[in-house]
Amino acid sequence: MITVIVPIYNNATFLPSLIQQFYQQTTKDFEVVFVDDGSTDNPRAAIQQIDRHELTYQYIYQHNQGVGSARNTGMNHARGRYLMFVDPDDQIMSNFVAEGLKTIQGFDLGIMAFDLINANGNQLISHYQWKSIDYTYADFLKNFSNLYNSELLFSVFNKVYDASILKKNRLKFSKLRMGEDFLFNMQYFDLIDSISLTDVVTYRYMIYGEGTATTSFHGDEFDCSYSNQQYLIDFLNRHHVYDEKLVSLHWSLILAYRFAGVRKLKKIGSSDYQFARSQFLEILSIFKKEKLVKVPLLPPERMVKYLVMITKLNRMFI
């Protein structure tokens, strides 16, 4: 019934644990498609240890093309009626597949609750949950802003997708280096009629501290975020649910992510710091010229942080 797609890139050390979590699932009516995106740490060794009596799986190798491409490859080989996604460095609970199957029955999309965990101390950081409820598309749109701000809509790991909808509409992950999850979901939201949410937690998103993902700099971060935000605005306008408060808040968050990125580069003495700082100041001019944020609409704490970022006070931090 379900295909679970696992993109792999140089995280083979997590696979034995994840495989055990697949063994422990309360239903066996699923397959796993492991897509090796050109890893150099030999994930095949762990996958070859899988007991085929315990787990139905496929292993596919491709030259490194990025996580979006790996997921697309998995989708091309999927045999399940529904699709789910797991990142190998996260954790799934024993009810992950069964609850996913239960949630999407009779609907076009299933959305489940999840936890954000500090991997170093195995401590709960945040809990993302919404009451169990079934939505018609009209109701989904009415509640879109609240759902969006609850952070249930961004990621793919807490969702179950109808494979027939994806195939019929040829929906794939984009080539965006970051934010491809968000864009994939927003495009899928345009294709469906019904959504089911459950408050049952099935997934643990693991935060491993300041690793390469949080300190690396590529220079296209803002371009990716800007593109996604424009898609969101277009979606809201097309469905007549435009929310200036929502849009302003998330423009301010986009700037905050870039601000935090520059601060981290400064802290670690990165050679990218000066360029990233210069780029941030250019981004500021875009925010001011296009009047992207309506400051009075921001929550008080976010308003203060935004004013620090856009004034000379920012020199104290970057």
UniProtKB/TrEMBL annotation:
It comes from the Bacteria. InterPro entries: Glyco_trans_2-like, Nucleotide-diphossugar_trans. Keywords: Glycosyltransferase, Transferase. The keyword Coiled coil does not apply. Pfam families: Glycos_transf_2 (PF00535). Residues 3-147 form the Glycosyltransferase 2-like domain. Signal peptide: none annotated. The keyword Membrane does not apply. This is GT2 family (WcaE). It comes from Fructobacillus evanidus. The lineage of its organism: Bacteria, Bacillati, Bacillota, Bacilli, Lactobacillales.
